[in-house]
From TrEMBL:
Claim: Nucleus is one of the keywords in the record: no
Pfam families linked to this entry: Response_reg (PF00072), TIR_2 (PF13676)
Modified residues (4-aspartylphosphate): 58
Family matches, as CDD domains: REC
Natural source organism: Candidatus Electrothrix marina
Residues of the TIR domain: 146-282
Name of the featured protein: TIR domain-containing protein
Xref: SMART domains: REC, TIR
Amino acid sequence: MKYLVVAVDDSKFMHKIIEKLFDPKLFDVQFFTSAEETKKALDAFPLQGREVDLVLLDIYLQDGTKEESIELLEFLTKERKRTQVIVMSGRLSADEFAEFYNKGADSYLIKPFSEESFMSSVKRHINIARNIPEYNNGPLAKIKVKERDVFISHLSANKKLASFFRDELMKHNIGSCCENAELLEDDIWRPVLTEAINTCKIFLLMFTHDTLKSDYMKQEIIQAFNRKKRDGNKFLIIPVLYNIKSTEIPRQISSMHCIDITSANNRADQIRSLIFSIKKILAALA
């Protein structure tokens, strides 16, 4: 089955540009110019036995304001839980992206974009959408992955493992922020990640021998510990140790209850056990 992509942009010229970037053998791309016609199509797709994998949403639609795209994003977040959303704009500020991210957007693209950056983002979010449980059957509306109760702090080198955590959390109806720490270098992502740490309930720290070599990871860890001092038991930090010697772990981390997943023999079982514990913790914090 082809990946179903919906592109919403009031510019027919942009439709042509985007269409050329997709392989028609792999993708079915549907184009719309307004939120109203997009909603009608989104309501019709399930009747055809189809679910949208990805929505490319221009921030400024026909009236030149954000209201129409925000309304559509809220509709998507409420009705289509597994659909990934990438917002697009030629002029996107950090505050604007934060507004859309908090309403359910997953990433952004700045126009004009290169084919490489465009397809890299598309493929990443298609994979996320297809990994969400109950994709082929079952009540998709029960999945609330946009709530992002868990922040997964990790380096891009550990992205594969972090993604496994994210997918396992999804299976238990738990949303997460799973963006690598290097994105703090991005002026648009930085305030979003900062806010995500301030609003999540659990900070899952993937701690490796390279963690403290990264200034970005240090920033996230400092922010999390400062919040822990402020919020106490209302906020939990869980260090997950991976390929690191005990002598390399700072005392502040080693004094906490850590989960060591270095051994490949039982790594998956340990992660699933941790996810089960996280589910119980979130229920207690609710």
